[in-house]
Amino acid sequence: MQVLALNSSPRTDKESCTFFMLNALVEGMREAGADVEVINLRSKKINHCIGCFSCWTKTPGQCVHKDDMTQEIFPKWQACDMAVYASPLYYHTVNAMMSKFMERTLPAIYPFFEKDENGNTFHPIRYRIPPLVLLSVCGFPEASEFNAMLEFFERTQHQNITPLGAICRAGASLLTVPALKNKASDVLQATRQAGQELIKEKKISPETLARISQPIGSPESFRKMGNLFWKTCIAERVTPKEFDEKKMVPRPTNLEEFLFVFPFGLNAGAVTDSKVYLQFHFSGEVNDACHFIIAKGKVEACPGVCEKPDLTIETPFSVWMDIMTRKSDGAKMLMEGKYQVRGDASLMLTLFQTGNQHV
């Protein structure tokens, strides 16, 4: 089976959630024996449809544009047995690049008008059109964000062309969060399974779709972390791409935000057999205390002071925020006396060595 996967994401592979999902789907299709070609539309020259209707009149079935769409992509699209439309969600539907591609498939239909069984008018098909699969991701955590896109996808199907499935992943940015790697792995494994099912069965089972769309984290946590992320990008004047390249983390501005963010950077999995109590005493613009209870791979964040901490860190709030967000080297700041550590200092390495904290 020949499959053509069209990726309309403007981002490069390493920073594209669309790519993560599409790559898993393609792997599953190939495992099931399909010959899959992936075309990144961002690297192709595809002109906008100019609405001249030459492909209906002067050169029936042929577009006037002599670009990559006419000379390469359109013929491959016609010849394939299945097409995957992979697009990030922009303004509740496919993005401009995918829309441009879809508009340029106009030569595949005749200009004439016919009536379907429901009394609706449609254009008959000139060329063979492959059955389609939609794959999309969005930033918001609610699956309802895809409602308009799914309606658009259904309404844009040609007569007698039945879509094979729609794979939608809300909150896609969470797929790369280390603390959520187990659920993210299951989502990608299910997407790979969907690829296998599409090749073998020409459909995706409800169970597989449920795994793909399963919740990853709570919407409330998503909103909190998202707001901190954007506040940090604005304060530091960086784009999300630059944020990732610099391996930055969201910077808390108060104790409540610190209590929320800090556990994501701890190597909680290293504490399995007993409880560890980590105490912070802050000074400066935040003059307060909090502590964390780490046990069995989980972290409980608590305001105030605990009775018998295993490790206590006394630091100006701004100093620790600089360390946590990689503006300062933690080991150097400790040697310079910028903050103090009391108790089991080896816990510093245990708790922070694989997390986001650089000490």
Task: Give the topology.
Blueprint: E1 2-7, H1 17-31, E2 35-40, H2 68-79, E3 82-88, H3 96-103, E4 114-115, E5 121-122, E6 132-137, H4 147-155, E7 165-169, H5 181-201, H6 206-212, H7 219-236, H8 240-245, H9 255-261, E8 276-283, E9 289-295, E10 298-303, E11 311-316, H10 317-324, H11 330-335, E12 340-343, H12 346-352
Parallel strand pairs: 1-2, 1-3, 3-6, 6-7, 8-11
Antiparallel strand pairs: 4-5, 8-9, 9-10, 11-12
Which descriptor suits the 3D outline?
elongated
Estimate the helix proportion, in percent: 25-40%
Average pLDDT, rounded to a whole number, is 90
Uncertain runs: 354-359
Largest sheet: 5 strands, parallel
**Helix-strand makeup class:** alpha/beta
Task: Determine the N-to-C terminus distance.
Answer: 53 Å
Radius of gyration: 26 Å
Number of strands: 12
How do the strands of the widest beta sheet line up side by side? 2-1-3-6-7
Number of helices: 12
Q: Which strand-content bin applies to the residues?
A: 15-25%
Order of helices and strands: EHEHEHEEEHEHHHHHEEEEHHEH
